Structure formats: C-alpha cells, structure tokens
Amino acid sequence: MLFEGLELVSALATLAACLVSVTLLLAVSQQLWQLRWAATRDKSCKLPIPKGSMGFPLIGETGHWLLQVFSKIFSHEALESYLPKIQLVIQDTLRAWSSQPEAINVYQEAQRLTFRMAVRVLLGFSIPEEDLAHLFEVYQQFVENVFSLPVDLPFSGYRRGIQARQILQKGLEKAIREKLQCTQGKDYSDALDILIESSKEHGKEMTMQELKDGTLELIFAAYATTASASTSLIMQLLKHPAVLEKLREELRAQGLLHSGGCPCEGTLRLDTLSGLRYLDCVIKEVMRLFTPISGGYRTVLQTFELDGFQIPKGWSVMYSIRDTHDTAPVFKDVNVFDPDRFSQARSEDKDGRFHYLPFGGGVRTCLGKHLAKLFLKVLAVELASTSRFELATRTFPRITLVPVLHPVDGLSVKFFGLDSNQNKILPETEAMLSATV
Ligand code: HEM
Predict the structure, then answer these.
(1) What start and end residues bound the annotated signal peptide (predicted)?
(2) Is the pTM value of this prediction over 0.70?
(3) Torsion angles phi and psi, residue 44, rounded to 5
(4) How many domains would you assign to the chain?
(5) How far apart (Å, rounded) are the C-alpha atoms in residues 380 and 89?
(6) In the 8-state DSSP scheme, what is residue 117?
(7) Radius of gyration of the chain from Cα atoms?
(8) Which domain holds residue 344?
(9) What is the DSSP code (8-state) at residue 292?
(10) Ligand 1, from 192, 225, 291: best to mutate by most atoms within 8 Å of Cβ?
C-alpha cells in the first residue's frame, strides 16, 4: 500500500515536472520567436504588430491591407514573372557549383542561393556581385545573432546582431533609393515594386523605414526555410537514385531533358511545371519528411475544446508541424521517403485537412509557399537536367533541427556538369588522366 502511495506521489511529481518544463519551454521559445521577428525591425518601425497570432509582424491582423498586397506579390501572374529570373539565378549557381574542383557545402551554398534569389528576384536589386557577397556576410552575422539575449554589451551577440542590422539597412536603403529612381514610371516586376505600388493604391505610402524593415522581414522569411528545403531535396535525390531517374524520365517525356543539358534558359513556364506530377510528389515528400520549421505559435482568442481539453482564451499555444507529420494516421510507413504516396492513385494527403502542413495552416499559413514550391521545383528540374552530383563523404550526415532542419556537416557534395549524353563533364585535368588510363 505504502509502495503504491509512493509510486503515485512519484508519478505526480514527474507529471508536475513535465508540466513545468513544457510551460517553461513554451514561454522561452515564445520569447525567442518574438525576439526573432522583433530583431528584423527598427524600434521606430510603425508596421502593425500581430493580434491573436505570433506570426509575422509585417502583416499583423489578418484583415490588414498588407495581406491584400501580399496576395498580389505571390499571385499566379507575379510568380510567372519571377520564374525566368529564378531559373537564371539557379542555372548560374549550378554552373558555379559544377566548376568548383572541390566538393561544396550544400547547406551553406543553398543559403547563399536563397539570399541571392530574395535580393535579385524578390527585391529586384541590381547590386554588383561583390556588394551582394558582402551583404550576404553581414546578413549571416545578423541571422546568427537573432536568438541572442537582449543585453547590449560590447562584443555581445546582441550588439553584433544590431550592428549587422544597421549595416544591412544602410545597404537596403541605398538599393531601394536606386530602384525608386530607376523604376519611376515603369511597370512593376518584382515583389518590392508591388509592395511600393500597391501600398500607394491603398493610400498607405510606406516610409523608407517601413520599406527597409519590410524587405528585411521578407528576406528573413524566405532565407533559412528555403535553404533548408533545398538542402533536403539534394540529399534525398542523392540517397534515392531511382527517384532522380524517375524525375529525369518525366522531364524527358515532357521534352525538358534535351541534349547538351537543359537549353531552356529562362524558358520554363508555370503550366509546364504544374504538368510535372512526379516532380510535385517529390517536393511534397521532401517537405513532409524534412519540414524546415517545427511549428508555430498562436494566442487563443476564444476558449475552445480540443479532444476533451478546454483551452482558455489568452493562452499561448504551440502547434507542431513535425509531430503532426510523424503521427498523422493517413501516411503509411511514415518514415519512408516515398514520393508516390502523393500520386493521384494514392493521394495520402487528401484525407483530412490538417495532416500535412509544411507551410503551416489556417489564416496565417505561409504567404510565400507558392514561391517556395516554385523555387524548389526549378531547382529539381535544373539539378536533374544539367547536373550530376555525388556525396563527398563516406556516409550521409546526421540531421539537426535547430534553428531550422539541416545536415550537421552542411552536406558535402561534388557537382559535375553534364555533356550532351547526360554524362559527367570532368574537369580538364581529370579528363586527361582518365584518357591516359
Ligand atoms: C520551404 C520554404 C518555406 C517554408 C517551409 C515556410 C514555412 C512557413 C510556416 C510554417 C509559416 C507559418 C508560421 C506560423 O504558423 O505562424 C510561414 C509563414 C510565413 N512565410 Fe513561409 N515558408 C517558406 C518560404 C517562404 C518564402 C519564400 C516566403 C516569402 C518570401 C515566406 C513568407 C512567409 C510569410 C510572410 C509568413 C507569415 C504569414 C502570416 O503570419 O500571416 N515563406 N512560413
């Protein structure tokens, strides 16, 4: 009896300890989340702060006019106009990767690529390559210190983060001013143009400070998430050659895998991409098993009940994307990488609205999801049609989840170009060596 009593006390103590840790974890991570967004903006920024959600401060309330502007930025028409530029940025990057004699660190290079995409395509800045490289270094310093404690001491992470933000904002201001001068009277063709023009249409001309904060937040939202997903995509194509081959077959069938690599510089269209069903399945499966963001936060606006538990108004709650994907009953062999689960015949994601949510869910779902998927699809098409790539380490690296999902060593991969028969183009010295053997 005494023994049972002790067991009960110990079980209650464990439960209490668990509750305290969960509450603490929630409170700390919520603070970090808020800090993360607050760090992207200047104190004087007047952009709306979210109500009822700890989502993206740029947008704030769901019915806000900025949401309507964002729907334009990511509309079908806008995506069609970004597509050739995205393709060119990716083609340039893959050429550079293939010309490197050494293996590259995929995660690091994917970060550089998404930064480039955000600056060149989304913001339409035509800054010289060296300035872009410098801006990227500063940006990395900024991102590395976003989660630091807000203690403003010399050499502290916080001070370094603030300094990096100031340099970035200076660079952004210069680029925005140049852009405003060049684009006056022209049709708009990138997200920043749309942001500027549409806010005017809503009678809310944005100040320079708001534009700088807004652009920094846009880069921030696009950067780490898309780099994480791009790295996972490359890793899965390496791990599953049969999937890559099937992808190549699909491209070949659609006339997209020509001799001499892909001659289709800047010629992909949205409808061509949406016709590639297997490609869609591959991207979906990468996003299911390797979702870059673990979850999100919400403030409860109205008391509600979930599975018999009452969740009171005013509480902060967290939803987990990763756990949802791991436990959703709709997915068979949940840990297996199997793009065909999304094929028309199986459509595992079609049963139930909230089993598959790599881009979040509800009214605060990711605004850039179509752009992100488009980017990943173009990357996969270009990889399949113009590159061969090999893992440069003996085994695949472990995956870490913080701050976003990525391989611990960044994933070391050697890239080669492809000749007209889809064979590797070896660097000259290697080609000579193999010719003499
Ligand atoms: C693979 C890449 C991406 C993933 C996995 C991703 C994921 C997410 C998730 C899960 C959320 C919701 C967070 C929450 O519930 O509070 C979110 C929000 C958001 N994302 Fe993305 N995202 C990606 C790329 C992008 C890109 C490229 C952009 C645009 C440039 C973008 C812009 C946004 C914005 C503006 C929000 C806030 C929406 C709001 O609060 O109403 N994302 N993203």
Answers:
(1) none
(2) yes
(3) -80, 0
(4) 1
(5) 14
(6) H
(7) 24
(8) 58-126+182-436
(9) S
(10) 225
